[in-house]
Amino acid sequence: MDQTLVERRSGIVSRWLDIVLSRYPESTRSLLRRGSEPFANPVASIVGEALDGVYARLCGAPLSTALEPLDRLMRLRALDGPNVSDAVSFLDPLRALVRTELLAASCDPVDIASVEARIDELAERAADRFANARQALTAIRDRERQDSSARLVDRLQRHRTERKDRPWQP
């Protein structure tokens, strides 16, 4: 079964990427397709690395292979603002694609269930990482608000002090 997934990797990942990108507006889609150089197109790089890492896990690679790219993708998705189910929905088409390919290769249903269990495991990890990223983002925004409020209070106090020294000026 793992050999079947390895042999059909490029076709499955290519179709999966097409499905994932089809959820974006056309202008974003064309930008993401231009290339996946980390500095020239960091979003495409993150998406591509995440899809490759997830697919490698399905082919039998250790879980750690998928976790770092998955974490980066979930941090990116947390910035986009979707809910958890939308953030991890990129795994849904993979399930259908892999099932179709494995059934066409006459793989054992137990093997198919094993691959789907790996996808479920990755979905759980992705949801956890997304929740952690949203929590960290909320903490950052709260700190920024507090810092902004503290600076505003400081400015008001300085302004009042200056006005006490020069009450006749507007």
Summarize the structure.
It is built from eight helices and no strands.
Please explain how this structure is put together.
- By secondary structure, the protein is an all-alpha fold.
- It has one domain.
- 79% of the residues lie in helices and 0% in strands.
- The chain is built from 8 helices and no strands.
- Helix 2 runs antiparallel to helix 7, helix 4 packs across helix 5 and helix 7 packs antiparallel against helix 8.
- It is elongated, with a radius of gyration of 24 Å.
- The mean pLDDT is 84.
Gyration radius from CA atoms, angstroms: 24 Å
Q: How many separate helices? A: 8
The biggest sheet, with number of strands, parallel, antiparallel or mixed sense and barrel status, is: none
- Through-space gap between termini: 80 Å
Query: How confident is the prediction overall: mean pLDDT?
Result: 84
| Order of helical and strand elements | HHHHHHHH
Helix percentage range: over 70%
Percent strand equals under 5%
As residue ranges, the low-confidence spans are: none
Q: What's the domain count? A: 1
| Total beta-strand segments | 0
> Which descriptor suits the 3D outline?
elongated
Give me the secondary-structure category. mainly alpha
Descriptive tags:
170 residues, mainly alpha, elongated
Topology:
Blueprint: H1 2-7, H2 9-21, H3 26-33, H4 42-58, H5 64-80, H6 84-87, H7 92-104, H8 109-165
